[in-house]
């Protein structure tokens, strides 16, 4: 990673292993973008500001605001503002001039001062191995308030050699989260955002842009993500001169930031990247970033355990006896982690065991789970509290509500529960919650904590910063807990994937991809999920289960459930107490196979080779970082007319190496998990990539797993 300047120290070239980013200081105003794309060697290769701006034509004046790195409202300004300030004297325009710049090995810090008011603005560019992180800090050094009305983190300006861009974004709704959507940008603005108080589920704080020709394995892709767990906004802005920019950061909806004298404010990171290896290349860059920079160090390169969760089998109706019996069955199938989901607690808000269900507390369960050789985990929904809880009775004022109004409550008839949201924007509430969860973890010794959140903001009363402070305090709670308990694995769940933010990765090593764990739906959900997230983080409770029948009224073979579950972090939610010995033994064989393949699936690079959106099958390839192994999942949905699949080309292997290949599945004479040598059982990495492998799937729910191992 390098940061180079030109002779005048007015232009900067930031370069890492995958891209370069160039900008220049203008005579007036904030810096101007010069370049974003493939790596460059010298700042001398950058265009001048005049060359970069001259494509914009009359009648718009060519000023330093064109291609501005942080568009600020003021002067001849006609574009989407990233920053807009109203000062105490009534002036709403800002005029920032450069005061200083500072370079370290990986960070460029540019300082600007507003010309009429004592406001200091610092733009921050931090290079990572494959991405660029951008944010800014503003400081009120005066004696009067200043009000921020727009506060996006950055503007990304696209290269001028493409005039029409195709945008890719992710979104959906509960049971259908993070599906890819694409559209060509026309002149005007296109906005994706969240106003739920969470970062999803209707849109995800992520974007990608290409010229319309990129596919999974090739083509230029420019992409980015906002690291924020609450309301966010990304605006695609294309003008009539065929120039495109992307602004993103905090959503200003129903919010404003009042900077009192001496106060400062820092925006969330808006990170951007570039690849010429298509959308799979984009995903691999984001996955490496999660591992190298975002995840807590103790879990960054950890294989995730096979878990059994009680929700799919016992639902809310857990007690000491049936939990222990379920745990004993879970040990038989090879589970490494046993999790009690909803129902163990006295009430939402009172995070101690229900005295009727667990008269001896959780200690007998914890000890039995430990005897069985498994770690123990618990579910919590800490952002709500029940009206009947001790916490609500002690602090009803902690409920989120408008002044003078009663808090809005939510009733769940399936568990006879009436609850309200806690106002985490209140620091006292956040402090209480942190200490309550800390005590729970310390006293139980749990190795796994599943966070859940089952409602959106409905009565966000109080301060104008409630949306912002709520998310900031939530991050503080769980990032602090991850430091307090570095070996603790936490799962990010919010009615499935309603908090699909990379910001959550700073504390959470597993994520509920969706409450919908129907196997055919998983094939599509996993595609969108892995655009941004590490494949192994794809969690949930019921990959192997009968509890997802309600989604599509679909009955699926056990082998197919297991194979689809292996794409991420395998979980069992089946009612094991009702399983026969034969069924338990079958599940155990899938778990054992998964553990064998898990190092490659969890720690390797992902290639999405065939999409279930486009074919009656999906193909996912995982390649070890040292290219010594590969695991390929071929998952048919509903093939017709006895049609044959084309040869599957397998990229990512060592071209000069020889690989031995075995196939799991496809033979009626042997169990699914018995390795079978196909007709072509030996091939080179180059042959795998250019000639491919012929695999035939037939009918419904047919699947294969290929395991390739490099010869020593």
> Percent of residues in helical segments?
10-25%
Q: Which parts are unreliable, with pLDDT below 50 for 5 consecutive residues or more?
A: none
- Report the sheet-strand fraction: 25-35%
Q: Please give the radius of gyration in angstroms.
A: 27 Å
Query: What is the overall number of helices?
Result: 13
Number of strands: 38
Sketch the major β-sheet. 10 strands, antiparallel
Which term fits the overall shape?
globular
Structural class: alpha+beta
Cα separation of the termini = 34 Å
Q: What is the arithmetic mean of pLDDT? A: 96
SSE blueprint and pairings:
Elements lengths: L1 E4 L5 E5 L4 E5 L7 E6 L11 H5 L29 E5 L8 E8 L3 E8 L4 E9 L4 E9 L5 E12 L8 E8 L2 E9 L3 E6 L12 E5 L10 E6 L5 E7 L5 E7 L6 E3 L4 E3 L3 E6 L2 H17 L12 E3 L1 H4 L5 H13 L4 E4 L4 E3 L2 E4 L9 H9 L3 E6 L3 E3 L3 H5 L14 E4 L4 E5 L5 H18 L3 E4 L14 H19 L4 E4 L17 E2 L7 H14 L16 H4 L5 H8 L5 E2 L8 H23 L1 E6 L6 E7 L5 E8 L21 E7 L17 E3 H6 L12 E8 L2
Parallel strand pairs: 21-22, 21-32, 22-25, 25-29, 29-30, 30-31
Antiparallel strand pairs: 1-2, 2-3, 3-4, 5-10, 6-7, 7-8, 8-9, 9-19, 9-20, 10-17, 10-18, 11-12, 11-14, 13-16, 14-15, 15-20, 16-17, 23-24, 26-28, 27-28, 33-34, 34-35, 35-38, 36-37, 36-38
Model description:
This protein is of the alpha+beta class. It is 20% helix and 30% strand. The chain contains 13 helices and 38 strands. Strands 6, 7, 8, 9, 11, 12, 14, 15, 19 and 20 form a 10-stranded antiparallel sheet that branches. Strands 31-30-29-25-22-21-32 form a 7-stranded parallel sheet. Strands 5, 10, 13, 16, 17 and 18 form a 6-stranded antiparallel sheet that branches. Helix 9 (519-532) runs parallel beside helix 11 (558-565). The longest helix has 23 residues, at 581-603. The radius of gyration is 27 Å and the shape is globular. The chain starts with a strand and ends with a strand.
